[in-house]
Amino acid sequence: PDLRPDWNPAIEAYVMADLVGEAPNLRSSCNVDAIRADGADSLGPGGFFFRQLTRPTPWLRAPRGLLNQVPPLYPDEIADQTVAQVPALQNIVVDDVNHFTITLSDRGAKTVADVIRTQL
After folding, report:
1. Three-state SS for 106?
2. Residue 117 burial (10 A CB sphere; 0-12, 13-18, 19+)
3. Which residues of 39-49 are buried (b: 16+ CB within 10 A; e: fewer)?
4. Sorting pLDDT into bands at 50, 70 and 90, what band is 44?
5. Dihedral of alpha carbons 110, 112, 118, 120, sign
6. How wide is the angle at C-alpha 60 spanned by C-alphas 57 and 65, nearest 5°?
7. Which residues, listed in sequence order, are joined to residue 90 by a DSSP beta bridge?
8. Which of 12, 20, 75, 98 has the largest CB neighbor count within 10 A?
9. 25 burial type by CB count under 10 A (0-12 exposed, 13-18 middle, 19+ buried)
10. What's the whole-model pTM score?
11. Strand 25-28 versus strand 57-61 pairing type
């Protein structure tokens, strides 16, 4: 992932906690099958998780993807289609973040925290 634009102590801790293996063969500890299953459960065919929502629920999205690329992980057309199918979702794009810096950068974390506070 591209974490360089907003590198900070939280990102350093995240990377070090996630890193497994022996140099020079280091890799993420993430389980690819679990990630795919989670994505399919949320947005895949059937979108089971999202379709259970009955109360207004913020869906915070990043305008850039895992590697800081455009289009993001959830492009606008997919988000628009999902929100049309699941009216409880409130589509919120967090400016100038990627899939990771939406929670790991100071700017992204502040925005996410502000939205969470509106739900308390």
Report:
1. helix
2. exposed
3. eeeebeeeeee
4. low
5. negative
6. 150
7. 58
8. 98
9. exposed
10. 0.80
11. unpaired
